[in-house]
Amino acid sequence: MVDPYERSAEYLDLMIAGTWQSLGPALAEVLQQVKAGPGPVVDVGAGTGRGVQAICAALPGDDPVLAVEPSSAMRAVLLARVHDAPELRERVTVLAEDAVHASLPDGLRAIVAVNVLGHLPPAERQALWASAARRLAPGGAVVVSVTPPFAPEPVPRTRMASAAVGALHYEGWATAEPSGDDEITWRMDYRVLRDGRPLSEVTVDYRWWVASENRLAEEAAEAGLVIRPAGKPDLGLHLLTRSGE
User: Fold this and answer.
1) Concatenated DSSP letters of the chain
2) Measured between alpha carbons, how far is 45 from 74 in angstroms, rounded to an integer?
3) What range(s) does the Methyltransferase domain occupy (predicted)?
4) Positive/negative CA dihedral, 147, 121, 21, 58
5) What is the pLDDT of residues 166-210, one digit of tens each?
């Protein structure tokens, strides 16, 4: 399978840095609502590791954190981030696996899947819910982000992020078009400029599966889980817990 991040990983950590300034503290706050006691925490689709940092800050101690990331390009940044921070190196294990096939232990305190659900076709989402229902400790929870679009509809071209490093300026632009009954295709353009003049541009397409909150609730219910919003509404964070917990 072609890894779209092979061409875009160079830019992604830079492009998401601003988002994580608000998302990181919000994720930490939501994780502190999880009722389970100490135990392993899994970051599914850990990307470049900004979520891993938030998890370790929110849940201090020596509980293991499993950072699951299938893209070798993204893992290169993730592993470097973990290695360079002693507080992460002692407790974070980086796994070259995906959300559905990862070898996870039982008794999990939490599973974090932020900015991940769109990568999973419906059958793989349902497999994730079923796995979570089996492996979570009593009081454990899944933390997910649920963000638009919720239906296969066009998204106009928008500048998503920009940043300056040294003499160069970096921009990330996004647009999307429907590509199936419950799927869109994102087109991401990453531009590098110097003094306002473009030096290079990389364009990458990503498949993205969309789902409404109602549909996710129905899928979760089939696995014995309930979903509810958590934290600031504009960030789309939700908790999934077992029914009755």
Assistant:
1) ---THHHHHHHHHHHHHHHHHHHHHHHHHHHTT----S--EEEET-TTSHHHHHHHHHS-SS--EEEE---HHHHHHHHHHHHH-HHHHTTEEEE---TTT----SSEEEEEETT-GGGS-HHHHHHHHHHHHHHEEEEEEEEEE--S--SS--EEEEEEEEEEETTEEEEEEEEEEEEETTEEEEEEEEEEEETTEEEEEEEEEEEEE---HHHHHHHHHHTTEEEEE-S-GGGTEEEEEETT-
2) 10
3) 41-140
4) positive
5) 999 999 999 999 999 999 999 999 999 999 999 999 999 999 999
Q: Are 204 and 219 within one domain?
A: no
Check pLDDT > 70 for residue 112: yes
Joined tokens for residue 172: 């990330």
Q: What distance in Å separates the CA atoms of residue 221 and residue 60, rounded to the nearest whole number?
A: 31
Note whether 63 and 88 are same-domain residues. Answer: yes
**Residues 207-226, mean pLDDT to the nearest whole number:** 96
Chain centroid to Cα 138, Å, comes to 24
Q: How many CB atoms lie within 10 A of CB 156?
A: 7
Counting the structural domains of the chain, the total is: 2
| C-alpha separations of 11 from 26, 40, 162, 190 in Å | 24, 30, 10, 7
pLDDT at position 1, please?
62
Structural domain including 110 reads 4-146+211-242
